[in-house]
Write a structure and sequence with these properties.
Elements lengths: L18 H34 L7 H27 L15 H13 L2 H34 L9 E6 L3 E6 L3 H30 L4 H55 L4 H29 L2 H6 L1 H11 L4 E6 L6 H20 L6 E7 L4 E8 L12 H11 L3 E6 L5 E8 L3
Parallel strand pairs: 3-4
Antiparallel strand pairs: 1-2, 4-5, 5-7, 6-7
Helix pairs in contact: 1-2, 1-4, 1-5, 2-4, 4-5, 6-7, 6-11, 9-10, 10-11
Length: 428
């Protein structure tokens, strides 16, 4: 039996080289050739005004701030443009947020924004695309002029047709040669336009789209951070449970045992005293049961699994020692880890507000955002000054949220108010 020869598998065309994306890239480049220089001029003006007016009562700081966030807006738009054009799966560029309160925290935030590597990669790609766009405009003009030249024998009256490209080229072509020159010019311009579009796609993937190795390294870093957060969260939770058992339930149960022992000794000689001791032990037993229920609720909220986050937060607000205004707007359910992370973050925040901040009220806002994240904000009107201490409740919140793949932000200036925001992927 003879074997049939197998044909080699067809090579797949790169995605950025598909006709639709090449046409889109050419259109983008033409637009950037017009808009890009205008944006560069605006940013250069803001930077120049900022430096020039810096000695004048610090007025230049306003222009420098506008310059930094102007760069961010351009970078965010460029990232969205490349992702929309090539479907690269780029995460949207987000503005940095202050990690510390006060003016010093604001300056750190601005500096972190200015030195953001992702922003500068996007800006570099925008600069390259603008240069390619400025080259695309005359090529597109040559393409249009060549088409007109090819059909010039149909409308030329003086036996001569013109091939013009802005102020760069202006040739008079006899109408007898016009179709040939027009076709050659069209082919040359189309090839140049195609080359610019291909170059744009290649450079965009080199500059702004992370390499596969970089993506894997970032995924590994995030995974390590989540695992470390989960381990720290479990350690903090274990320590809290041990402390609550040792300081609360265990001494109470020991007291119950001692009281019942005394009652047993007195039950024959002094029944009334024994009865009082038994009543005291009964009261202490009920208190211990209550503490155990609260401790179990702190480990796992069964209502969260049974009825969802909205119902669990309503029950939590009802047990709070301070008034809570609850505003929850979520459609459907998120993953158990995401809901648990947000629930316990809110529970710990309400506990801190009641114990430490002397707050008179608290507002809890929960939303499910369009980007697929579960977002919550807890704000109280207390004294402020909350800090993340190792092993503390806020440390437990940050570790639990980090383990769920989310972000955590605390803003608590001296004098208040205190605001805590968490954002967790719904599918975590």
């Amino acid at each position: 039996m003879t074997s049939q020869p197998t044909s080699a598998p067809a090579r797949r065309m790169p995605e950025h080289a598909s006709p639709a994306r090449l046409a889109g890239a050419a259109a983008h480049l033409a637009a950037l050739g017009v808009v890009g220089p205008i944006v560069v001029t605006i940013l250069a003006t803001l930077f120049g005004l900022g430096l020039g007016l810096l000695p004048v009562l610090g007025i230049g700081l306003v222009f420098l701030l506008a310059f930094v966030y102007g760069l961010f807006v351009v970078a965010a738009l460029e990232t969205a443009r490349i992702d929309g054009l090539y479907g690269a799966g780029l995460p949207p560029l987000r503005a940095r947020r202050a990690q510390r309160p006060g003016f010093g925290g604001f300056l750190r935030m601005v500096w972190a924004q200015f030195t953001d590597p992702a922003m500068w990669r996007a800006l570099a790609n925008a600069a390259v695309a603008t240069i390619l766009g400025m080259l695309t405009l005359p090529v597109a003009a040559l393409l249009a002029s060549s088409v007109a030249l090819a059909f010039s024998p149909l409308y030329a009256t003086e036996g001569v047709a013109s091939l013009a490209v802005f102020d760069l080229l202006d040739l008079d072509i006899p109408t007898a040669w016009a179709p040939l020159v027009g076709i050659l010019g069209f082919l040359a311009a189309a090839a140049a336009l195609l080359g610019l579009a291909l170059l744009h796609g290649v450079l965009a993937r080199v500059i702004i789209v992370p390499a596969r190795e970089a993506q894997l390294a970032e995924q590994a870093r995030v995974s390590d951070a989540q695992r470390a957060g989960a381990m720290r969260a479990s350690e903090v939770e274990r320590t809290r449970i041990e402390r609550d058992l040792h300081d609360g339930v265990q001494p109470r149960l020991v007291s119950v045992g001692m009281t019942l022992g005394l009652a047993q000794q007195k039950i024959a000689s002094d029944p009334d005293a024994a009865r009082a001791l038994i009543e005291e032990a009964h009261t202490s037993t009920k208190a211990a049961i209550t503490e155990l229920r609260q401790l179990a609720r702190g480990i796992h909220a069964s209502v969260l699994d049974d009825r969802g986050l909205d119902a669990a937060l309503s029950a939590l607000a009802g047990r709070s020692h301070i008034p809570v205004h609850l505003d929850v707007r979520i459609d459907g359910r998120c993953s158990r880890d995401a809901e648990a992370a947000v629930y316990f973050a809110i529970a710990e925040s309400l506990t801190n507000a009641a114990k430490h901040s002397r707050a008179g009220g608290c507002r809890v806002t929960v939303r499910r955002r369009e980007d697929g994240t579960l977002w919550a904000r807890v704000e109280d009107d207390g004294l402020g000054g909350a800090r993340i201490l190792p092993g503390g409740g806020l440390d437990g919140i940050s570790n639990r949220v980090l383990a769920a793949g989310g972000t955590f932000r605390l803003d608590s200036q001296q004098g208040g108010p205190t605001a805590l925001e968490v954002s967790v992927p719904c599918a975590s």
